[in-house]
């Protein structure tokens, strides 16, 4: 500790200097070069970063305090809309007999349930960590948060993928659809989606298989106030592939095929792409040995086959457009995070904490957008209206488009019909169609 110089062996006050540094303010990372142990340096730096009250998540400490209030309100609004919207979707499906009977409703409830978990668990904990600048709940809750996060996101993505497969079969093979996908098989597909999503998240996260071996990652795992997802290269690539790239590729290939077949059915009466509505009396009085794929719009006796096909084609086109918008929003929201996750696995310093949280919140916003995009469907519009306003009878089937409902209500108001007469008129109109 002491060193004698040439001028009289004078003692240097090096120990006093060390005391001043130890009792003074905590040094910045660039000023602590005298620490020789790199692991100790990393641990102290992460501890300093998580314990400092001036560091609030990825936001620079120089931002004024009102900005933190803005981000708190912003995260709160997104969380509330996500929770309320997905609860409304599930309630609309359960409350509506028409939506409940469809096979697709099982997949929609699976998607809404995954998005609801993101809103209930993942969004509040992530927002609190960003605003406070540290993790407040310990290692066990951190593992629980990431388990729910990976499970919900993977289930949401794969539910969208199953919906795309369901719509593709419904459009390209309508006569075989009810045999290929029935209610029991739909529930089985939903169970497979959730079992697979839980498997790739619960065991790797809770048993530590995903953990990176880098010094930064090890120091974070030892610090109860650090909750960062620092995965190995293999887990980062595998999770990104299973949760995004494979489902997105499948959806990109299936959706254009559904569109081409649906639009072909609008112009040509083709048994592969169009659904022909034939009354029971016509079937009993005629011997239909088969259907030929002619290109002329022939009308069967006693039916309005051409009008029915055009109406069905327009309905399928509208449903496919809604599905395409939902999938497009999904790809736009989750593409940034799916790109930086493998990059972070190979190069930790290439992805800052700020960029990581920005990309993951863009992905979370997708869970908020899905219930809003469902409102393009006339069936969901009427189900939402019935839930929120209570204007329609529960037994009224949801088979009318929104313009037809508006015309019926408008005509009913002009004729001074009572509420029961209007419901009866709407019910009779749907049965005729």
TrEMBL record:
Molecular-function GO term, any one: G protein-coupled receptor activity
Protein name, per record: Beta-2 adrenergic receptor
PROSITE patterns xref list: G_PROTEIN_RECEP_F1_1, G_PROTEIN_RECEP_F1_2
Positions of the G-protein coupled receptors family 1 profile domain: 85-374
Domain of life: Eukaryota
Major location (coarse): membrane
Protein family (similarity comment): Belongs to the G-protein coupled receptor 1 family.
SUPFAM superfamilies named in the record: Family A G protein-coupled receptor-like
A single cellular component GO annotation: plasma membrane
Organism: Eptatretus burgeri
Listed transmembrane segments: 67-94, 106-126, 146-165, 186-205, 234-254, 319-343, 355-374
Record-level GO BP terms: adenylate cyclase-activating adrenergic receptor signaling pathway; positive regulation of MAPK cascade
Pfam families, A to Z: 7tm_1 (PF00001)
Gene3D superfamilies on file: Rhodopsin 7-helix transmembrane proteins
Membrane topology: Multi-pass membrane protein
Compartment(s) where it occurs, according to its Swiss-Prot or TrEMBL record: Cell membrane
